[in-house]
Give the backbone structure.
Amino acid sequence: MTGSVLGAGLAAAAAVLALGGCASTQDGDVRDVAAAFFDPTATPDARCDLLAPATREALESDESAPCPDVIGELPLDGGTVESVEIWGSNAQVRTTGDAVFLTETPTGWRVVAAACESRGEAPYDCEVEGP
Amino acid sequence: MTGRRGFVKDNALGLAFGGFFVLTLVGQAILGTADYNAQQVTNGLEPVSFLDYVTSSSFGVDVMENWQSEYLQFFLYIFATVWLVQRGSAESKEPGDEGMESDQEQRIGEHARADSPAWVRAGGWRTTLFSRSLGLVMGVLFLLTWVASSVAGWAAYNGEQLAEKQDPVSWVGYLGEADFWNRSFQNWQSEMLAVGSMAVLSVYLRQRGSPESKPVGAAHADTGETG
């Protein structure tokens, strides 16, 4: 029984530390990717490379054109970062003019949905998003 | 001095269930990773490693929500069986014995024996606390694992919220979400069913050699006998 008590305590403590630790180190990475995606001086290729593969495919399929040719037409307002939320391998960055959702991939954080508008309790309405 | 063989035989029940626990937890981790990754692929997201999964909130809440309900079950059963009886059940005291029972029956106070635990012989608050220690520890373990379940559930819920392009919620906000209470009640109801079934079925059914059953030849009306 002592083992069970210790196990439960250690598991809970490890979970809390893992949540806190991961969130603080990943906050900067997520913030950097969002900033690079919103950077008005970034090349279309650089922006497209920051999209998650499924999202890029969806965009190219919807527009029937290569990503670099159409990414500039998206209404990406950017602005000052208001909040960064990271939960597991998913993240959300809200700026003064926009909201983007990101996912963690083997090559780093990538944008799964951008140019998103809040609809209250319903999912955000996004101009570009994956399946 | 107990020999090695003696130790194993003397502790076979605890060791066996400790082993079953580890095996089934590993099984849950392996199959949980496969299930989680199947969903990731469906959602167009990257599969995660085994290590990433077992340290994730998804795995944490799946484990904790089951642990909390098991400890709640034992906590409630230990206290309920002090005051409630089931005539004919191997799990119950004799009708008429409801309550805390006398010091003589419980071997405390002047009825403590030389081999009684030290806190029984000490008297005062130590005996009062020790007299309720089994239920209290189960209750504390329930509360700890329930809180852990709420924290892991909150993190998993917010991960799902973000995956579905919705805003995350605060921990207090999560306690008001149907997801938390659905997970809790889903586990609680199964424990109540299992305990109630055991209390009633042990009136009419037997398992030869098991202390969880009455002796095979015991009458259905006999209460509290174990075989």
